[in-house]
Amino acid sequence: MSELVVTGLDAGYGGAQVLHDVTFTVGEGEICAILGPNGAGKTTLLRALSGMVKGRGGVRLGGVELLGRPPDALARMGVAHVPEGRGTFMPLTVEENLRLGAYTRRDGLEQDLDRIYTYFPALKPRLKQAAGSLSGGEQQMLALGRALMLRPRLLLLDEPSLGLAPLVTRELFRIVRTINEQERTTVVVVEQNAHLALGVAQRAHVLETGRIVLSGTAAQIRQDEQVAQSYLGYR
Ligand code: ATP
């Protein structure tokens, strides 16, 4: 079971509270989009879910409390975070980056690498190349591939479209959808590009100044007048 249940989550940095009483549920195998303006706390939310910032309240994955555990323990429990800026190790090769993604275990690595190449065939001819020599789109695919090496139950994606050409971004979201469907991975995606995010997500939440101000199915959120004005650029 990989249902994510976030209840009354408060989080922040030192004395500065960023998230206030954030509550939402992502069903097992669902994709959930988090929308909102710059500085709303979207990145902080993902960091709280992966143990990188401390939080208070409840974050349960498959009924098990995640809050209070360090990031490496959460990684072992199947929480994979692809941060904004991707977090790939530029001087290392593509293959080394992928193998690093499986640092929580030793078995089945070759099989998992094959699985990654099926999702991202463009990476296969580049295995021995330094990650730094890849295009932006390939680096984002590598970051996603590295996260998949963890065999995640919960995949956290921060602004995957950042800096990528529209065509590359669409391809990336198509792959995220395929992964979600084939592996039943629960996904939380933070995205400035609301069109794209609402195209793949079943449900979405709008975060403003650290609070969820609107929640609904992707279709409901798309129809919301204010969201349309603020994030979709029409009406
Ligand atoms: P963006 O789309 O610009 O990344 P966001 O919605 O992801 O925005 P956050 O990055 O979570 O927002 O930032 C929320 C608030 O937390 C902002 O006011 C920001 O200045 C603050 N903040 C972010 N990171 C830190 C940090 N490491 N230390 C202190 N404050 C931080």
UniProtKB/TrEMBL annotation:
<keyword id="KW-0813">Transport</keyword>
<dbReference type="Pfam" id="PF00005">
    <property type="entry name" value="ABC_tran"/>
</dbReference>
<dbReference type="InterPro" id="IPR017871">
    <property type="entry name" value="ABC_transporter-like_CS"/>
</dbReference>
<keyword id="KW-0067">ATP-binding</keyword>
<protein>
    <submittedName>
        <fullName>ABC transporter ATP-binding protein</fullName>
    </submittedName>
</protein>
<dbReference type="InterPro" id="IPR052156">
    <property type="entry name" value="BCAA_Transport_ATP-bd_LivF"/>
</dbReference>
<keyword id="KW-0029">Amino-acid transport</keyword>
<dbReference type="InterPro" id="IPR003439">
    <property type="entry name" value="ABC_transporter-like_ATP-bd"/>
</dbReference>
<dbReference type="GO" id="GO:0005524">
    <property type="term" value="F:ATP binding"/>
</dbReference>
<dbReference type="InterPro" id="IPR003593">
    <property type="entry name" value="AAA+_ATPase"/>
</dbReference>
<feature type="domain" description="ABC transporter">
    <location>
        <begin position="4"/>
        <end position="234"/>
    </location>
</feature>
<comment type="similarity">
    <text>Belongs to the ABC transporter superfamily.</text>
</comment>
<dbReference type="InterPro" id="IPR027417">
    <property type="entry name" value="P-loop_NTPase"/>
</dbReference>
<keyword id="KW-0547">Nucleotide-binding</keyword>
